[in-house]
Design brief:
The complex is a heterodimer of chains A (209) and B (181). With 209 residues, chain A is an alpha/beta fold. In chain A, 40% of the residues lie in helices and 12% in strands. Chain B has a five-stranded mixed sheet with strand order 4-3-2-5-6, sandwiched between helices. Classes of the chains: A alpha/beta (209), B alpha/beta (181).
Chain lengths: 209, 181
């Protein structure tokens, strides 16, 4: 009895400690599955595409967030004061059209992504282009490959294709041709070419190199 | 385990001294173990092993003067429509036999078709052209790229393109005929 009890609690403490507590996701996004086996970086530049087609930009901790915000403030002449910028830096998501940012920041309210309109990505007014431009401006001196690794698109399964195309266009307009998609990892289906080549030890997954 | 010495010294023995009743101090551990295992099962089931992964995307550079020439015999065009429908045809669309050429399928069966085409075509000629309809979803676009990886189609042998008017019409017609909303 004692031994079993010990084992039970050892397991219990292991699982409690090993469980990584996910922060509650403000934007619920169901990502598609893929056979890719590379782990997505945590604190990157993530463009989130929700089910209802809204686009959000999240500049992670490891990115030059302050510089990017300052750059877009300058290039798009948003006229934000230092106090506005301080407030903007604290926002986790960017999800308002550029024209409304000043008003939103001066309102000084806690904004929940559920109600934000998202960054406009219409064919006539694709503000994602401006954002990607500012990001490339800030990262201009650094290795292009490093930037490519940080650019992630996290889309919902049910998001429609045109909104994804608009984001791709924004990248292409800024001469970024490589980026990454956040997916749910899954094993290659049994009997497929990929599964065979992995079993044969030839790697196979060309896309993951 | 949890046990205290309750014998109380044990010196006074003999007549006149009341015998102390020994009470067991062993605690019944069963409920605690029950609870422990309940919690273990809970954590085992709630721990998700799946991790977010990143899939690489390579977009071609848009250059007008550099059109990729594709052999008709090696080309397969995959069209993604709404409600997870997949349409495909081989080579170029011939107005005379559209209905023969233009076929519809789904994501389950497309893998077999992709593999069959791959096995029947010399590797140098092979080219899959993927076109997404405005009503297809993000999942479709990622899934079909994933199918390419699964089927071992090498990068450079598939590309995305814009859908032509004829193709859009054909999809509309097929959707109407098949009753897909």
């Amino acid at each position: 009895m004692t031994a079993m009890c010990d084992v039970a609690f050892l397991l219990l403490s292991f699982f409690i400690l090993a469980t990584k507590q996910k922060p509650p996701e403000v934007l619920s996004v169901q990502t598609p599955n893929s056979v890719s086996s590379k782990v997505a970086p945590d604190k990157a530049i993530v463009i989130t595409l929700t089910k209802d087609g809204r686009t959000f930009l999240m500049l992670g901790d490891d990115t030059k967030k302050a510089d990017i915000l300052a750059d877009i403030n300058k290039t798009k002449a948003l006229g934000l004061t230092d106090a506005d910028m301080q407030r903007w830096k604290k926002q986790q998501f960017i999800g308002v059209p550029l024209g409304q940012i000043k008003a939103v920041l001066e309102g000084n309210k806690e904004l929940s992504p559920a109600t934000l309109p998202g960054i406009p990505t219409d064919t006539t007014n694709n503000e994602m282009i401006d954002w990607v431009k500012s990001i490339t401006n800030v990262y201009a001196g650094t290795d292009q490959k490093e930037l490519e690794k940080m650019l992630l698109i996290k889309g919902d399964n049910n998001a429609l294709y045109p909104s994804f195309r608009q984001i791709k266009d924004a990248f292409k307009k800024n001469e970024i041709y490589k980026f990454r998609i956040v997916t749910n990892g899954e094993a290659p289906p049994a009997g497929s070419e990929l599964a065979k080549s992995i079993a044969a030890g030839t790697g196979g997954d060309e896309n993951n190199k | 385990m949890a046990e205290l010495d309750t014998s109380g010294g044990g010196h006074k023995k003999g007549p006149g001294v009341k015998k102390q009743v020994k009470k067991s101090t062993r605690v019944d551990l069963t409920p605690m173990v029950d609870l422990g295992f309940l919690l273990i099962t809970f954590f085992v089931f709630t721990t998700t092993m799946s991790q977010a992964t990143a899939m690489n995307m390579n977009e071609p550079k848009d250059s007008k003067d550099e059109q990729i020439k594709v052999k008709e015999s090696g080309a397969m065009t995959i069209l993604l429509g709404k409600s997870d429908q997949v349409y495909y045809y081989f080579g170029q669309l011939d107005p005379a036999k559209l209905s023969e050429q233009f076929k519809s399928t789904n994501f389950k069966d497309i893998r077999g078709i992709i593999t069959e085409k791959k096995n029947n075509t010399p590797e140098g000629d092979l080219m899959y052209v993927i076109k997404s309809d405005d009503e297809s979803t993000f999942k479709n676009a990622i899934d079909i790229l994933d199918e390419m990886t699964i089927s071992g189609v090498k990068p450079g042998h598939y590309a995305e393109d814009k859908m032509s008017g004829t193709e859009q019409q054909l999809i509309k017609q097929t959707e109407l005929a098949n009753g897909i909303h």
